[in-house]
Amino acid sequence: MYQSKIAGLGKYVPENVVTNDDLSKIMDTNDAWIQERTGIKERRHIKKGDGNTTASMGFKAAKIALERANISKDEIDLIVFATLSPDYYFPGCGVQIQEMLEIDTCPALDVRNQCSGFIYGLSVADQFIKTGMYKNVLLIGSENHSGGLDFTTRGRSVSVIFGDGAGAAVLTRSDHVGQGILSTHLHSEGKHALELSLKGPSTNHWVPEIIAENLAAGGEDSQEDIPYYPYMNGQFVFKNAVARFSEVIMEGLKENGLDVKDIDMLIPHQANLRISQFIQQKFQLRDDQVYNNIQRYGNTTAASIPIALTEAWEEGKIKEGDTIVLAAFGSGFTWASAVIEW
Ligand code: ACO
Predict the structure, then answer these.
(1) Which CATH number does 180-194+231-341 carry?
(2) Does 328 sit in the ligand 1 pocket, CB within 6 Å?
(3) N or C: which end of the chain has fewer CB within 10 A?
């Protein structure tokens, strides 16, 4: 049995900064509400014509991660791409990255587990490396949310939260037992699938249908029945998130005979600063034990953990031998954790 470790990290966010005040010019919202409820001050949005897409942002993050890992694109055995906002309905972004990296052929797998997507992908990469099937796996989380949000007042409870960006990690085989990915735990509960969802386009909501519904829905206040914008039952999601975050973090720690006091850095999926603060308080962690950057980027879904992990590493907040815990909760519902010995 081999061990896998993260050999390189990278991130990319679009240059275009959108503040809460910018949003308040196009919908009925305000900086105070957004900061108080979510902690978000600003986020990045792709600007029409800036060349950014989910795949191209992922490519930029991946290039940095590969350089830092000192691993050439030809050594990549598998690409895993996590996103809820792919460039195309099909094929997935994984093959686009493979083409952008000019890799002749290699397997490319797309993961659709929303906010838990990066940890699900990390687990897949870890299993392939542990069994010896692959040596180097390129894992990417990238999202273009801004292209598909409802920026009218009707969609404000969702659209103010999300931002665009990408993060990437290169996982490689390590002979150092006890270092690297120690464990991953994955969960889902499909009975809550529609509490946080985007229903179309899909085989239930093809484009002609959506156009017809779009016309019929004109002037409606509720976002619940509109299939082409994301819907979120915010308070229900919040309650489930705080419970599942706590559970899955403890599950990971227990598996490794660790306790909350052993955590050097917790990197929670950046869904809402209030959720991170709740977890921090519950586990009595110091500020320097929890990394948050939602204030600057909003919720970037599958990209949020790799962006945060990259920044924490760039800022020197992660050192060799540290115990790092990643945890996520999101649409599905899905939730997951990973315990890493850096
Ligand atoms: N600006 C101003 N007012 C607003 C806004 C806004 N942007 N959005 C909603 N409001 C209003 C509502 O209309 C409502 O007004 P009312 O009381 O007059 O009816 C009031 O504010 C409260 O709205 P709620 O939706 O109840 O606000 P809440 O405190 O629940 O905050 C939020 C909403 C931020 C979405 C929160 O519920 C949350 O963070 N939920 C969890 C998110 C999460 O963890 N998601 C998982 C990951 S995402 C993924 O997987 C894709």
Answers:
(1) 3.40.47.10
(2) no
(3) N
